[in-house]
Amino acid sequence: LSLELALRRALERSELRLHYQPVVAAADGRLLAAEALLRWTHPELGEVSPGRFIPLAEESGLILPIGNRVLDMLCAQMAAWRAEGRPLVPMAANISTLQFRRSDFVSIVAETLARHAIPASLLILEVTESMVMRDVERAAYQLGELKALGVSIAIDDFGTGYSSLAYLKRFPIDKLKVDQSFVREINEGPEDRAIVAAIVGLGHNLGLELVAEGVETAAMAATLRELGCDQFQGWHYGRAEPAGVFAQRLVGRE
Ligand code: G
Ligand code: G
Ligand code: MN
Ligand code: NA
């Protein structure tokens, strides 16, 4: 309970901020996008990992104001970079079940983009399979509304959830993010290669972009490139970086 109270205060005291992890083209490593990942520095506890505080935020409902703050901070950051004359890339925010299920979610996204004058095409929302599988009709409707707004949709941690393949054709999805668990041992045996090959084949046949997450080495990248992954995210290309560090990547692009 005390950590929950601390998290509530963190919102008021601006202890939460975003780091940005690059997403690059598999072909040549050029920057294509980024994922915003939340960080919390508590005045006494120091860094609290999102693996610890995100579940707490979800259980307590705090993920609603926190999720709104994430969208706001992300759009504000893009607006600030644009004001500095930096070329922007689409940026992804992780969305929680509770946020996605709210009937005002689409209007909050629209309002936040408008307030910062950020085109919807620069925003990617990452949702998980289990989130959209819970109520397929509603999810299809909601994703349709988000698409109509112009934002992109990525399915995060793909392959670990319900994996009902039928929904993929019903939902207006743009990207599949192959879960790290299939990438970690991609060069250790044939099993994960077979799984990733199947996911890539499925995704490409449905017209989706395939992103491999957790790409830690050049050897992993080589195998994933051979398997047809379009985009890479992982420590081999860059960790989640503070805004000031990531900004140095936003230069000299057309
Ligand atoms: O950055 P890291 O790998 O430690 O993140 C751990 C987990 O926290 C991941 O599952 C990630 O999706 C989640 N996470 C990070 N930032 C956010 C956020 O802004 N909102 C939500 N809902 N989850 C986040
Ligand atoms: O659930 P989601 O995919 O949003 O989680 C992303 C998490 O993966 C973040 O916590 C991020 O720090 C972590 N991550 C990003 N790249 C790598 C990587 O190359 N290796 C490992 N082990 N974790 C990574
Ligand atoms: Mn994610
Ligand atoms: Na993931």
Keywords for this entry:
binds manganese (II) ion; 12 helices; 8-stranded mixed β-barrel; 46% helix; binds sodium ion; binds guanosine-5'-monophosphate; TIM Barrel; 254 residues; 10 strands; alpha/beta
Question: How would you portray this structure in words?
Answer:
34% of the residues are buried. An eight-stranded mixed barrel has the order 1-2-4-5-6-7-8-9, surrounded by four helices. Helix content is 46%, strand content 21%. It has one domain (2-249): EAL domain (TIM Barrel), CATH 3.20.20.450. It contains twelve helices and ten strands. The N and C termini lie far apart (49 Å). Strand 6, helix 8 (166-170) and strand 7 form a beta-alpha-beta unit. It has 254 residues and is α/β, with parallel strands linked by helices. It has helices at residues 2-12, 50-60, 63-83, 97-101, 105-115, 129-133, 136-149, 166-170, 180-183, 190-205, 218-226, 243-246; strands at residues 16-25, 31-42, 46-48, 91-94, 123-128, 152-158, 175-178, 209-212, 231-232, 241-242. Bound molecules: guanosine-5'-monophosphate (2 copies), manganese (II) ion (MN) and sodium ion. The site of one guanosine-5'-monophosphate (G) has 10 residues, from strand 2 and helix 2. The site of one guanosine-5'-monophosphate (G) has 13 residues, from strand 6.
The major β-sheet equals:
8 strands, mixed, barrel
Q: What's the overall geometry? A: globular
Give helix % range: 40-55%
CATH class: Alpha Beta
Pick out the low-confidence regions.
none
Placed side by side, the strands forming the largest sheet appear as 1-2-4-5-6-7-8-9
Radius of gyration: 18 Å
Bound molecules: guanosine-5'-monophosphate, manganese (II) ion, sodium ion
The topology string of helices and strands comes to HEEEHHEHHEHHEHEHHEHEEH
